[in-house]
């Protein structure tokens, strides 16, 4: 089977299935690492390369020309964040995004990463207001995605 057909099956079936609901994930380093490892394994399988062949990941990516899975997840999350911020009525999606616990007590240890932490890190606490300008939000998407690409290196 030609690689172009395998790539098409991967893009249309496997990638979509692996990332189902990714808009709501809290991206962590561990999760991005697991996604990349799974993707590399599938790319090796597509090309018929074994780990023992010691082919660089960049070379494999160049041959398969498959989109990076973390890049795809980051794009989907950014789009969803813009959509949620532009909701006009009082839907549960927006209310849950802005919800703060009532008791105010924090548990011991490192706090769990929240869905909005990545977006707040990139755009600040006013991200909801900024997302209402759809054109600017789309322009800022590339910077958000590049932040995930930098973490990979």
Principal-axis shape equals elongated
Mean pLDDT rating:
86
What is the helix fraction of residues, given as a range? 55-70%
Could you describe the largest sheet, including whether it forms a barrel?
Answer: none
Give, in order, the helices and strands.
HHHHHHHH
Structural class: mainly alpha
**Roughly what fraction of the amino acids lie in strands?**
under 5%
Total helices: the number is 8
Total number of beta strands = 0
Which regions have little confidence, pLDDT < 50, spanning 5+ residues?
none
How many whole angstroms does the radius of gyration measure?
Answer: 18 Å
Amino-to-carboxy terminus distance: 33 Å
Describe the protein in words.
The chain is an all-alpha fold and 153 residues long. The protein has 8 helices and no strands. The protein has helices spanning 3-18, 29-47, 57-64, 69-85, 92-98, 117-123, 127-130, 134-152. Helix 4 packs antiparallel against helix 8 (134-152). The longest helix is centred in the N-terminal third of the chain and has 19 residues, at 29-47. The protein is elongated and about 55 Å long.
What labels describe this entry?
153 residues; mainly alpha; 0% strand; endonuclease activity; hydrolase
Brief synopsis:
The protein contains 8 helices and no strands. By secondary structure, it is mainly alpha-helical.
């Amino acid at each position: 089977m030609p690689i172009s057909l395998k790539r098409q099956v991967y893009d249309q079936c496997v990638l979509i299935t692996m990332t189902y609901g990714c808009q709501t994930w809290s991206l962590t380093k561990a999760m991005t690492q697991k996604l990349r490892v799974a993707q590399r394994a599938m790319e090796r399988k597509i090309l018929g390369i074994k780990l023992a062949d010691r082919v660089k990941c960049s070379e494999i990516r160049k041959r398969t020309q498959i989109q990076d899975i973390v890049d795809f997840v980051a794009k989907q999350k950014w789009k969803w964040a813009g959509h949620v911020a532009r909701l006009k009525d009082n839907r549960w999606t927006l209310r849950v995004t802005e919800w703060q616990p009532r008791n105010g007590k924090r548990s011991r240890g490192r706090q769990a990463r929240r869905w909005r932490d990545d977006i707040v890190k990139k755009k600040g606490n006013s991200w909801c207001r900024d997302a209402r300008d759809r054109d600017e939000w789309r322009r800022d998407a590339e910077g958000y995605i590049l932040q995930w690409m930098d973490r990979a290196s």
